[in-house]
Every structure is written in C-alpha cells, then in structure tokens.
C-alpha cells in the first residue's frame, strides 16, 4: 500500500460483481455464524473488544485490518481453536447452528468438523495425498466410500487433475500452491458448513494465489467462507462482505464489500483502505 492512487485503481468490485452473479443477493440467505458481544483476552491483554456481527451463509466474508488487530483471534474463536491457547479467555457468544459454541455440551472436535480451517502456511501431514484428504473422514468414522469422497474433495479443491495419478505420493512433494489446495481438500472432506481461512495465499506466489482466489469463489456456492487477509485488493476481489478491525480488537465497520471500499462510513476505515496507516 504505497499510495492512494494505486489503491483506488486496484480496489475494484467489478470482478466480485461478475463472479458472484450466480449467488442469491445478499440479504436472501441466513446467518451462518454470529458473534455477540465477544471479548477475548490473552492474560490481561484484550485482543477482541465487544464484537457483534452476523456472517451470512454461503458467502465470502473478509476480515481485514492492520497486523495485531485481532483478526486471527476472532477467526479462531469461531471453531474454538483458541481453546488450545492456555492464557486465552473468551467472553460472549459465538452462535453456530442456533447454539453458542462455548456452551459446556459442545464438543470442540465435532465443531471443527463442521467449521474447518486453513492456515497461512500450507501444512499437509507427512502422509500420502490420499491419506491427507481422508484424515478427517477416518477420525469421524466415515461410513461412505472414502476413495470417492477423497476424489470429490480433491475435485472441489481444483487439485484432482494434477494429482489423480499420484495419490499415494507424499503431500509434502507438492508445490506450495498445490499443498494449500490439498489443505483445502482436507478441510472440506468431512463436509463442513463453514471454512475459515487465515491469510491462505500470503505464503504463495501470485499465480498460485490467484488459483486459490478462484477456488474460494467456487467454494462459496456450497460453503460459508470466512477469510482473513491483509491484502485489501484480495478482499475487494473475492468477498461479499468485509469486516474492518482496527487496533485493540475493535470491529470498526462491517458491510457489503463494495460499500466498504467505495464509500465507507468511518473516516478511520477510509484512511486504512487508502493506505494512510496500517
Ligand atoms: N497466543 C497468544 N498469546 C498471547 N497473545 C497473543 C496470542 N495470539 C495473539 N496475541 C495477541 O493478540 C493480539 C491480536 O493478535 P492476532 O489475533 O494474531 O492479530 P492479527 O491476526 O490481526 O494480526 C495481538 O496483540 C497479539 O500479540
Ligand atoms: Mg493473524
């Protein structure tokens, strides 16, 4: 983000408007996930400050904001990945399927099958391509045809054609972009409802990143995608809704992506997206 002019020319919602034509208009779908008065602390440090937002189903919602503003923390609250961090404390609700995921009777492992996650650095297991994708199916005791589901998942992740003749070779032998698509296949194999992605293209070259962007657009026909990105052009290209977090874990503005990038309500948001800070 060096200057306002290049940002303005790059942040266009044309691609988004075209590519999302086949999805119903916003407002005609239900809510997949809702945060209600969510606060998150690491020890005494507050990382998320009273965030309330409803995330539409079968849409791409982008979370943007400067480094350290709580984007990853917020994402990890949704499938309780923060449970793994000893000093992390969550207050407030995250509703999924009409239930607060922080209630005592929610099984976090079952929750994570319904809300899969993909990370910044592709992290395939040191296993075959097939076993990587089948991993979650085995844990859940999948009773269907595993090979069939592996194929479907690899197809849905736009990787099948590249790997169909080498399913027994190690996932680690693939290129970075292929590894990330493998991780996406692994996340969607158990047929989740929501896929969380934390800067999934930032470790990839532009061509590999662009393939993942195309894939995300396809995924939103079937899944709710919630993606953290520090790349504002990417948010403008691929998301339907954008949430802008600023320092201190405050959700400053949340709206249709076109509105956020073309005519935000908040001066702080305008300053951020035009590169004045952050
Ligand atoms: N595991 C952790 N332990 C302690 N503090 C953390 C941990 N993870 C994140 N934080 C702090 O929480 C705040 C938000 O971090 P994070 O959610 O990673 O932001 P972002 O993803 O927007 O860069 C930062 O101040 C960060 O230092
Ligand atoms: Mg982060």
Automatic annotation (TrEMBL):
Question: Which SUPFAM superfamilies does this chain map to?
Answer: P-loop containing nucleoside triphosphate hydrolases
Please list the residue ranges annotated as the ABC transporter domain. Answer: 33-273
Q: Which GO terms describe its cellular component?
A: membrane
Q: Mind listing the GO molecular function terms for this protein?
A: ATP binding; ATP hydrolysis activity; phosphate transmembrane transporter activity
Q: Name one GO biological process term.
A: phosphate ion transmembrane transport
* Renumbered residue ranges of the record's region Disordered: 1-28
State where composition is biased (Polar residues).
1-18
Keywords for the protein's UniProt record, in alphabetical order: ATP-binding, Cell membrane, Membrane, Nucleotide-binding, Transport
Q: Which Pfam families match?
A: ABC_tran
- Per the record, the domain of life is Archaea
Q: Which PANTHER family does the UniProt entry name for this protein?
A: ABC TRANSPORTER I FAMILY MEMBER 17 (PTHR43423:SF1)
Record-given protein name = Phosphate ABC transporter ATP-binding protein
Please name the taxonomic classification of the source: Archaea, Methanobacteriati, Methanobacteriota, Stenosarchaea group, Halobacteria
